[in-house]
Amino acid sequence: MASKLNQLTSKACQASQFVAKHGNVYYKQLLEQNKQYIQEPPTVEKCNLLGKQLFYTRLASIPGRYEAFWKELDYVKHLWKNRQELKVEDAGIAALFGLECFAWYCAGEIVGRGFTFTGYYV
């Protein structure tokens, strides 16, 4: 355990030296490449204003997303009513989507249990 701690300390020291040597250049390059996104003057007040703009813009987009959700739901209802005319490709896509949802659910359960497959800590 002590050898692993020494290795970790050594790696952390190397990483901090690398950042100290190259971090400033990377920072300046990153700012230069993305200067079109920087608001002038870069103050706390400007950041607060942008945060509020983002929040209220997202809030204003809810009715549009709500409407789009109901359109999608109406489309699914229409497909369900006319399922006799459903093509094999559409059924396959729906089955794959359901399988993907189930797989993400299973992955979430595994992550929630601490990456154990049985649910028990051994």
From TrEMBL:
<dbReference type="InterPro" id="IPR006808">
    <property type="entry name" value="ATP_synth_F0_gsu_mt"/>
</dbReference>
<dbReference type="GO" id="GO:0015986">
    <property type="term" value="P:proton motive force-driven ATP synthesis"/>
</dbReference>
<keyword id="KW-0496">Mitochondrion</keyword>
<dbReference type="GO" id="GO:0031966">
    <property type="term" value="C:mitochondrial membrane"/>
</dbReference>
<dbReference type="GO" id="GO:0015078">
    <property type="term" value="F:proton transmembrane transporter activity"/>
</dbReference>
<keyword id="KW-0375">Hydrogen ion transport</keyword>
<keyword id="KW-0138">CF(0)</keyword>
<protein>
    <recommendedName>
        <fullName>Mitochondrial ATP synthase subunit G protein</fullName>
    </recommendedName>
</protein>
<keyword id="KW-0472">Membrane</keyword>
<comment type="similarity">
    <text>Belongs to the ATPase g subunit family.</text>
</comment>
<keyword id="KW-0813">Transport</keyword>
<keyword id="KW-0406">Ion transport</keyword>
<dbReference type="GO" id="GO:0045259">
    <property type="term" value="C:proton-transporting ATP synthase complex"/>
</dbReference>
<keyword id="KW-0066">ATP synthesis</keyword>
<dbReference type="Pfam" id="PF04718">
    <property type="entry name" value="ATP-synt_G"/>
</dbReference>
